[in-house]
Amino acid sequence: MFKLPDLPYAYNALEPYLDAATMEIHHGKHHATYVVKLNEALANQPELFNKTIEELILNLNSVPEKIRSAVRNHGGGHYNHSLFWLSLSPVKSEPAGELMDLLNRDFSSLENFKGQFTKAALGVFGSGWTWLVKDQANKLMVITTANQDSPLSQDLKPLLCLDVWEHAYYLKFQNRRTDYVTAWWSVVNWLEVAKRLS
Ligand code: MN
User: Could you tell me which of 23, 106, 111, 165 has the fewest CB atoms within 10 Å of its CB?
Assistant: First the structure.
């Protein structure tokens, strides 16, 4: 069975940028429900419990068709949110070393990268995610995905992700997605991004 991972910080740890109430509902209700529904979908295919969530998402075509969209949506939700929580930290950090070199190489500067990522996040229509990914040729790119689709399914390695579903920000920011994205930059865990890069 898949399990809801604990957060590596308290629900109120990211205040005032991301509020405790949103974090609690987002993790304890939304993410928890993805895990419950993923387990329900896999209940009749128990051999799939031997796979990791990454393996399931990487090989969606090998999942039986009758549960494939449930695994794509709820498994994707579980995987994406697990990454999202680790991409946040109350401890301030900055990109450095190889990560900074690659951001400079592929986006000209950190500021350009942040601008491109923010623009992509604001442009997501409906529910979805914005990602910094690394492709097979080791190039960094910004992409967006709809619903709970994951870059893993496109053979891209996720380094950083931003949830732009309304449930991620509506309680505190209502329709002001720009303010949410601005606040989110203040709690990005760059050490985690660097760790995923290597
Ligand atoms: Mn979410």
Answer: 111
